[in-house]
Structures are given as structure tokens and as C-alpha cells.
Amino acid sequence: MASAQAADPVVVSSKIDTEGSVLGQMILQSLTDAGIEVEDRLQLGGTSIVREALINGEIDIYPEYTGNGAFFHDMADSDVWHDAEAAFATVKDKDAAQGLVWLSPASANNTYAISVRGELARDKDLTTLEDMAAFINEGGDYKLAASTDFVESAFALPAFQEAYGFALGDEQMLVLSGGNTAATMRAAAQQTSGVNAAMTYGTDGGLQALDLIVMEDTKGVQPVYQPAPVVRQDVLDAYPQIAEVLAPVFASLDLETLQRLNGDVAVNGLAPAEVASDYLATLED
């Protein structure tokens, strides 16, 4: 594989999901605005497809999640993925051996979460999973919509229950066969069968629109999934300004911001390119 030259366009890619398309557009547009010629290969496929394309030099840069380093490097049993700084440092170090460079990540964490209806969170002052556990243990009216996998996987609900000291009975759960968080969020928003909480991901686009509040995982039960650009080393050597261009963009992406941007696509139906362009314009103000 030939080394990248400064005359070559940078091939920008992303995964096929909503957040991948938004982050991919941010990378694509930011590099273009910096005068770097790019080639659009956004929404290429799932994690394994995009990762393999990067390793093989078929693409040059795409947004990935720190927690996926656990699977890339057969380290799923390591506790390192539960700490943001350690997770980033570990995957950055491991991937360097493959000629891949992780640039500065966003603070947003798109991991498994439990969210509750906004009116309940505000009324009972629930902001963390400790708060939620105390509410449940005091006999509060609580019912969770979740997938079968979330309920049964040792790394999901059982891990939350063990860490925070609460237990949900069958009558406190609405278990859905699919793993789509759109269904669990809709159940909570519509209070289906009395549901007022839902399995979600931290940056789900529907959270703000449906007024669902993510309960903070203060004990780090779940692995950290912070998005960050990953670029081939020889491409970064040819275009060293890439790191400087993208650092402030990803630094600006906290949890609420990424929820809102994802919501503009998933809920409001806007094009990812438009959402990214409008957001990048605000960073220039």
C-alpha cells in the first residue's frame, strides 16, 4: 500500500447509523473548510466493515468509539474500558501498532444507559443511578421498558442492579423482544403499561424530543463509548493539520449536544449534512 501524499484526497468514511453520519459529515466538512481535498465514503457499513476498510487503506479516517477497542484487541474482560481516560489511552496505544491514530475524543458517552421520564426526574430530583435506585428502594412507582438482551445480559441491567443496589420485579419491567431503543423510548414517552423509564443509549437522538433524562452512571458500570476520529498514520503525516482542525469540533460535543444533533436527524428529519453544517457554523461565531 502506497503512503499517502499531500496531493491525495482524504477518504472520509463513517458507519451507517445516524450518529455516524452526523460525525462523518463534521469531519468531511471541517477538512474541506480547512482546504483539504476529501472523498466522501460516508455510511459505508457496520463497525467491522468500516474498521477493516481503514486497516486496509481503503478509507483514511472515520469516527469510532473508544469502548470498541475492547473487541478490536480481545480485551472485553478488562476494567480499563470503564474509565474514559484509560480507555482512550489504551485503544490509542494498541492501534498505534497498526498504523492508526486516535485523535481527541468527544466527552459524550454513547453507552448503555437507563433514562427516566423528564417529569419524574424533575419531580423527584433524579439525576444519577444512585438517585434512581433510592427512589425504587423507597417504593417509588417505577417501570422500565427494555430489551430481552438488556434484561438478561450480565453486563447490562444485572450489572446496574448489583452496583447500585436495587432489584426490579417482573411487574416493574416491560420486556421487548427487539433491541431497538426507539421502541423502549416510545414506551416510556407514551407511558405504555405504566412505563416511566427506558433502556437507551447515552446519545440517542430521541431523548430530548421525548423528554427522557439519562441517569448518570457515576460508578462507571458500563464501558465508555466516546466518539473520536481515527486516522491512518501516513495520512496524518501528509496532512498534520487534521488533528488541529478536528480537536475543537469533537471537544464541543458533550452528551446533550450530540443528543440534540442526532435528534435533528432521527426525529426532525433533517439531512446529516445540513445538521453538521449548521452546527459547525455555530463554532465559528
How would you characterize this protein structure?
The protein folds into 2 domains: 10-108 and 227-284, D-Maltodextrin-Binding Protein, domain 2 (3-Layer(aba) Sandwich); 112-214, D-Maltodextrin-Binding Protein, domain 2 (3-Layer(aba) Sandwich). Helices cover 44% and strands 18% of the residues. The chain has 14 helices and 10 strands. β1 (10-15), α1 (18-33) and β2 form a beta-alpha-beta unit. α1 (18-33) packs across α12 (241-251). The mean pLDDT is 94.
Looking at CATH, the homologous superfamily of the largest domain is Periplasmic binding protein-like II
CATH T-level fold name of the largest domain: D-Maltodextrin-Binding Protein, domain 2
Give the C-level CATH assignment of the largest domain.
Answer: Alpha Beta
Question: Which segments are poorly predicted (pLDDT under 50) over 5 or more consecutive residues?
Answer: none
Radius of gyration in whole Å, from Cα? 20 Å
| Largest β-sheet summary | 5 strands, mixed
Helix content: 40-55%
Q: Strand-and-helix sequence, N→C?
A: EHEHEHHEEHHEHHEHEHEEHHHH
Alpha carbon gap, first and last residue: 41 Å
Number of domains: 2
**Strand content bin:** 15-25%
Structural class category: alpha/beta
Given the C-alpha coordinates, what overall shape results?
Answer: globular
